[in-house]
Specification:
Length: 463
Amino acid sequence: MSRLVAVSNRVADPRNAAAGGLAVALGETLNATGGLWFGWSGRVVETAQGGTPGEGELHLQHAGDVTLATVDLSREDHDAYYLGYSNGVLWPVFHYRVDLADFDAGHLNVYRRVNQLFARKLAPLLRPDDMIWIHDYHLIPLAAELRAMGCGQRIGFFLHIPLPPPPILTTIPQHEWLMRALFAYDLIGFQSQADLEHFARYAQSEAGAEPMGDHRYRAFHRTVRAQAFPIGIDVDEFVSLGKGHEAQETYEMMMAQYARRRLLLGVDRMDYSKGLPERLKAFQALLAQYPENRSSATLIQIAAPSRESVDAYADLRRQLEGMSGAINGEYGELDWMPIRYIHRTTSRRRLPGLCRAARVALVTPLRDGMNLVAKEYIAAQDPDDPGVLVLSRFAGAAEQLKEALLVNPYDIQGTAQAIQQALHMPLAERQSRHQKLLENIRAQDVHWWSREYLRSLAESDQG
Ligand code: ADP
């Protein structure tokens, strides 16, 4: 088996399960092949006058058999590459929020420069038969830069966020350059069939690509394979976290506090793609239209701080604080508050307990590549008495999780009705839906995802 070289914006120690899904997914193959994981160190070095000392410095570290190679960035590069272009242009447009994109700021040059820097640092570490797997929207042009330096290895890309259809994608002034860069890969992985169809439509209508069968498209003098690989979670790991002391304690505390009430749960990064204001409005509509839920249903909404230096995120925070205060003011009682809004990250070890205690989970993004919280909620349930997942049809996960209650999060009344249905769903129906959902997330877990992707990359023709 070839050595795996993984590249992502952030690098984690794969021995640390708490480092998250990607570390778990890649850790197995990285370990088995004595692999290399390359990316930004997470460190920003201040630019000194007349130069950028420290920028681009390569740090090598060993984590068992895996080598971690990371590069520092200067403040200017970080701000323009990460905040400016990746999160100020690509993130909003790829999540269909053209209105929030800042096309004029001129960050593209730095986005490109940082990708060139990464290519220069990575290329000398590569061996001829390495298999390279590059992750996410920060690094779209990295393969093209590596190719320009003469790298002929198999290179795959996985887009963790959605790919919008051509009328939205083409609002990015540099869309052709970005899509041409994608054709430098041998395999492009998407989260959903919908994303894959958008790619195929773009390739055919804008780049004149011909589908060549076997998932292959030819354009810009290269042939690329494109497929959907929905990412999963490590179900066993989440289930075993749920048996741990902290999860149990959280579950018992929640059950004691909410014995007479029904708990609804939302757990998200604070991001405008997650549909949080719409979710609060739907919950408000539930209280207005189904008064039996007053003094009873409680929504715990946890929103972890994220990208706070980007304006749209700071605006969202103020909006959510205002809305939850207004709803609590309108409906709250001396002994009951409808919304508990928490602007913090919850410990991962407590999360399964919280999920298990919640009768209903509200996973209602306006747009999401996949959404792993939906899968974590299913994994955490008691199969004998499971809760109900209310899931946005605009999350990539909706293609797989058909037995959830699928909603259109823009339809506030419709979402309120679905929440009401979830709160009153009979046990037998909850059990049968949960059983199918659990089978699904087990069959396509995170290990399946990386195996399938790497198998396809190994099989794909080069160029
Ligand atoms: P995204 O990658 O856009 O943040 P996902 O749902 O795909 O969304 O993945 C989020 C991951 O981060 C999940 O594993 C989830 O448990 C975790 N997470 C999200 N919000 C929180 C939070 N408020 N506290 C703790 N963990 C969180």
